[in-house]
Amino acid sequence: MSEVKLVARTLDLFECYADKGEPLSLTELSQGLQAPMSSTLALVRTLVGRGYLYQTRKRTYYPTKKLMGICTSIDMQDPVLDILRPYLVRLRDKSRETAVLGTREDLRVLYLDVEPSSHPIRYTAQAGETRGLHSNSLGKALLSALEEKELQDVLGRLKLTALTDKTLSSPSALRADLTLSRQRGWSANISESVPDLAAVAAPFCLAGKWYALSIVGPIVRMQDAWDQHVKVLTGVMKDIAQDQAVENM
Questions:
Q1: How confident is the model at residue 86, as a pLDDT?
Q2: CA quadruple 50, 52, 56, 62: dihedral positive or negative?
Q3: Domains of the chain
Q4: Do 32 and 16 meet the contact criterion of CB atoms below 8 Å apart?
Q5: Which of 135, 136, 130 is nearest to 106 (CA)?
Q6: Angle of helix 37-49 relative to helix 5-20, nearest 10 degrees?
């Protein structure tokens, strides 16, 4: 997918601030964005003029709270997350592991929301991150929900890159896994994307679009409670189906 260069550079600027966590000079921003000083200056002046950045006394720049206010307002009015966040929290609380909500955007899984575990050692991710479909429990759950024609199209374009020695990197192995996922109602990822992580996920449809929820954590802790995690996940899936059936009556 092609990027609009100016939009990508603007997003990179805010991600640079999130990474550095401090005011940055024009030179530091130019280096961080790998952009010419003139282009960086024009971008910064525009953002200052729109109230998204301000200049400190040390001639550095830092974001104002304007973007956070806009993002908070958007998040509070998200029609999907407004419905699904309670289930995500329920999944996290009952499993005590990190819970993730995702959907498919062409050949990637897009994380829509994440509720982190309270354990000191836990899986961490951010909303907006993407993962490969074939090596992610959410991705495999979403693939398992596709009709055959669409699945053939997606698999025909999907690069089955091996991230670990457990990654399903052949079409036949992935298809066999998807068949099993359909039969049991959930998908697994055991060391397929990261060696020391495991996850279980299940798909569901809301207003004509497919989503999936997953429980993710360190592999030893996940495997010790695997049957319980499957039970918790399938229970939340039933809750979603029942609540939506009542909503649609």
A1: 95
A2: negative
A3: 5-70 (1.10.10.10), 78-247 (3.30.450.40)
A4: yes
A5: 130
A6: 80
Counting Cβ atoms within 10 Å, is residue 157 exposed (0-12), middle (13-18) or buried (19+)? Answer: exposed
| Element at 144 (helix H, strand E) | helix 137-144
CB atoms under 10 Å from CB of 13, counted, come to 23
Residues 6+ apart with CB under 8 A from 124: 98, 114, 116
Gyration radius (Cα) of the chain, Å: 21
In sequence order, the 6+-apart residues with CB closer than 8 A to the CB of 242 are none
Which residues neighbour 23 within 8 Å (Cβ) at sequence distance 6 or greater? 56, 58, 60, 61, 62
The three-point CA angle 79-145-139 to 5° equals 75
pLDDT in tens, 173-200: 999 999 999 999 999 999 999 999 999 9
245: left (phi over 0), alpha (psi -120 to 50) or beta: alpha
